[in-house]
Design goal:
206 residues
Length: 206
């Protein structure tokens, strides 16, 4: 299952940079008696071309393993947008990712206390912007593992293999700005006092 994301987008007529918070790592952490957090930033470096980088961290305490599993991941991708509409519509991406895994117990699996995983990533997708508030990212891709961890649990949580789904990206700054503007407009301004009809000075005036 591909998680939904919460994103912040640079304002403008077209999307040229997106910051996204990936809730999928938090879900994986909660399922394994822990927590997690991931985020990514994508920016258009020139027309048709964008770079995307991401970081993630999880601290897990799986019930079937007598250890604490700590992961730190990094990912870098290049996305090609053939229509030249910023970060919208069809894109083709490629990149690589790494995951550093630490096992907190006396010996670790097979006597090891650390693992290092590397992957090569390929994907194709379609991003659709809806009124500057929401972006739908529909994609299919594959993570080719260069090497694997010593235990299957670590291979599973790092999401190797085929992945596909839809990520919904909410443009939170624009939504908050519009809501704030509406509240300001709805608040009535205090009326200025009217001068006396006969032109005499008001009480308390010089």
């Amino acid at each position: 299952m591909i998680p939904e994301t919460l994103c912040a987008e640079t304002p403008g007529s077209a999307m040229h940079s997106i910051f996204s918070l990936d809730l999928g790592y938090l879900g994986t952490g909660l399922k394994n008696n822990g927590w997690g957090l991931g985020f990514s930033y994508e920016t258009e470096v020139m027309r048709y071309l964008a770079f995307k980088g991401g970081l993630s961290h999880m601290t897990l305490n799986p019930t079937d393993l007598n250890m604490i599993v700590i992961t730190v991941g990094a990912q870098l991708e290049a996305h090609f947008y053939p229509f030249g509409r910023g970060l919208d519509w069809l894109y083709v991406g490629a990149g690589s990712g790494t995951d550093f895994i630490i096992y907190k117990n006396d010996s670790g699996p097979g006597g090891r206390q650390r693992d290092f995983l590397a992957t090569v990533i390929g994907k194709v997708g379609w991003k659709q912007n809806f009124f500057g508030y929401v972006m739908a990212d529909m994609f299919v891709g594959y993570k080719f593992p260069i090497n694997k961890a010593t235990i299957d649990f670590s291979n599973a949580i790092t999401r190797h293999g085929l992945e596909y789904g839809i990520k919904l990206r909410l443009n939170l700054p624009v939504i908050a700005k519009r809501i704030f503007k509406r509240r300001v407009k709805a608040k009535p301004e205090p009326a200025e006092p009217l001068p006396p009809e006969d032109g005499s000075p008001r009480l308390g005036s010089d």
